[in-house]
Amino acid sequence: MVSYLQVQSLTRRVGDRCLFADLSFGIGQGQKVGLIAKNGTGKSTLLNILAGTDSADEGQVVYRNGLRVGYLEQTPHYPEDLTVIEACFWHGNEVTNLIREYETCMSTPGNPNLQEILDRMDHQKAWDYETRSKAILSRLAIDEFDKPLRQLSGGQLKRVALANVLITEPDFLILDEPTNHLDLTMIEWLENHLRRSNVTLLMVTHDRYFLDRVCNEILELDDETIYSYRGNYAYYLEKRQERLDAARSEVARANNLYRTELEWMRRMPQARGHKARYREEAFYELQQVAKRRLEEKQVRLETRSAYIGSKIFEAQYVSKSFPLRTRNGQPVGEPEQRKVILRDFYYNFSRFEKMGIVGDNGTGKSTFVKMLMGEVQPDSGRFVVGETVKFGYFSQEGMKFDEQMKVIDAVRKYAEFIDLGGGRHLSAMQFLQHFMFTPLQQQSYIYKLSGGEKRRLHLCTVLMQAPNFLVLDEPTNDLDIVTLQILEQYLQDFQGCVIVVSHDRYFMDRVVDHLLVFRGDGVVKDFPGNYTQFREWEALEERDAAQKKSAAPATPTHTAERHTSERPRKMSFKEKQEYAALESDIERLEQEKRDIETALSSGQLSVDDITQKSIRLPQLQQELDEKSMRWLELSELA
After folding, report:
1. Domain tally for the chain?
2. Predicted local distance difference test score (pLDDT) of residue 526
3. Buried b / exposed e across 138-172, counting CB within 10 Å, b at 16+?
């Protein structure tokens, strides 16, 4: 395997805090690597160092000569006077620079040097490149190519930056939270795009399905050290637990030996001879191992919720729409042209219900939540909320903290003590420690926290108020995987009502029992199940519709008006053979997939077998997708 990146003895400190020390690892051609770490441990800092936008205190980063590296920052920055299309080619290669030059020429009066640029475009075959570039932009719901960046939201700007880095087609791609601000359709498209691409990849993401289906290696940054796992996310979970169990066993053995050696040290307090000195030195090394703490810092979301009655809320024939607007904020066309969010929507929410809300960006998910919370008024209809309901609202925009306030003071604004139920109480300081805020961090100022740590603090202030109805709008953005796992467990056990708006498919599968699917134009579907079950149902519906379409008789037309080339084409002999072979191939691949999944869950495989099967599984899925798509194409001709 050709080495693309070598990281050697990398160390980075922030003030008196060490983020990581003496990190060394490598990434080879074709590898797709996921980086996992808790919030505040230096994930984004490490990516910035690798991308050259930040520097390390010690160590070096070595790339293969001539390697083209693309980097998607967590918070992209562009000059505000650029348009969308200009920003998409802002960081580019030779072809994208040429396209940007062409766009500038076409927008300049007189089109200076147009012929020379056209000749170069022909030579570089840039015309198809530009078409493909705009196709990627459209996939990410970016259609106004001349719109100024200053008119975009933060989420739209992140999608422009993602399009930019994909368009440049780098050899090595570094992505920091690429799924943030993408809707589910976009996430699944990006997942398939990266999975089928030959690009070498290093990314940070909290989307566990995305990690599992795209990555073939996981790097974990923990306790200032990097750990490597040669497999996908499921393999990482298994091997990480084995590593922690082994480390705990080592500490337990060291503790037993430490007690014996400590007794020897106490019996001989005077100066020792040369022969005993080696034992004294070994004792101090043993002492370090024995006193090592392997407690996993986890968020223990254990709070008491207030009593909730049988009347929760009722949406009584609610309608909501907004006028369509142009780039300058003025209505488009006739006054009746409006974007419809809800149309006579009725829903009676049940006690202890856990509902997920999904849909493409712009279909009105957050608007629905804001209407429920009273922040936005409906055009008609109303929300009737029960008297015992006590909302806990985790907003997508996050909480506006006083950046100069200390972490502990921000929590004490709400309560000095938190009731856990059963006569148990925690002080604000103890409660924060359950949220992975150390005593030192609690005395630190909020402006020093990372984005994920601020989101965690926001979550802490919501839950400590003992709500009985949690409304969570994009709670997974910027939270690390450890926090998400504990939040999932908390929501599963929560004795109250939950509404979750999220693009995290894994999170939705674990938490909700049914969905509201916002289709757009005021259409909302109530689906009884989680997200994976919904997608399976939707795929069956699409397949049935395609089969019905292919089976339906052609609409009769006058023979004289129909050209021979317009008649429905039948399968050729070669296509019939391919169609029959595809059916057997799909059956064989599905059986192989089932066999691998059974073997991986058996717990009887060697490390090499697990690695091979973990690599083979995503390859199998890709082959199945391709053959199934071809089978559907041919089935329309059957």
Report:
1. 4
2. 92
3. ebbbbeebebebeebeebbbbbbbbbbbbbbbbbb
Whole-number pLDDT of residue 410 = 87
Tokens standing for residue 71: 């980097």
Same domain, 349 and 383: yes
Q: Domain of 50: which CATH number?
A: 3.40.50.300
Radius of gyration of the chain (CA): 29
Domain around 628: 568-635
Specify if 467 maps to a domain.
yes
How many other CB atoms are found less than 10 A from the CB of residue 280?
13
Q: For residue 543, tell me if it sits in a domain.
A: no
DSSP letter assigned to residue 409: H
DSSP state of 350: P
Residue 215's CB is within 10 A of a number of other CB atoms, namely: 28
Smallest Cα–Cα separation from 479: which of 506, 443, 509?
A: 506
Q: Which pLDDT belongs to residue 589?
A: 83
Question: What CA–CA distance (Å, rounded) separates 492 from 82?
Answer: 46
CA distance 531 to 376: 27
pLDDT of residue 250: 66
Distance CA 146, CA 109 (A): 17
The 8 Å CB, 24+ separation contacts for 595-599 are: 596/620
Residues 528 and 584 grouped into a single domain: no
CA distance 497 to 352: 5
CB 410 within 8 A of CB 486: no
Grouping H, G, I as helix, E, B as strand and the rest as coil, residue 285 is: helix
Q: Which amino acid is at 623?
A: E
Tell whether 212 and 261 lie within a shared domain.
Answer: no
Q: What is the 3-state secondary structure (H, E, C) of 486-546?
A: HHHHHHHHCCCEEEEECCCHHHHHHHCCEEEEEEECCEEEEECCCHHHHHHHHHHHHHHHH
The predicted structure's pLDDT at residue 339: 85
**Together in a domain, 323 and 362:** yes
Residues 6+ apart with CB under 8 A from 342: 318, 319, 320, 364, 368, 378, 522, 524
Res 553: pLDDT: 62
pLDDT score at 34: 94
The C-alpha atoms of residue 332 and residue 324 are separated, in whole angstroms, by 6
Query: What is the DSSP code (8-state) at residue 401?
Result: -
Compute mean pLDDT per 10 residues along the chain, 638 residues long, and list them.
91 84 92 89 90 91 91 87 80 74 83 85 74 82 85 85 87 92 89 91 92 92 86 88 76 61 57 53 56 49 71 92 64 64 92 91 90 93 92 83 88 80 77 81 86 84 86 86 84 89 91 92 91 89 81 52 45 68 81 80 71 76 78 70
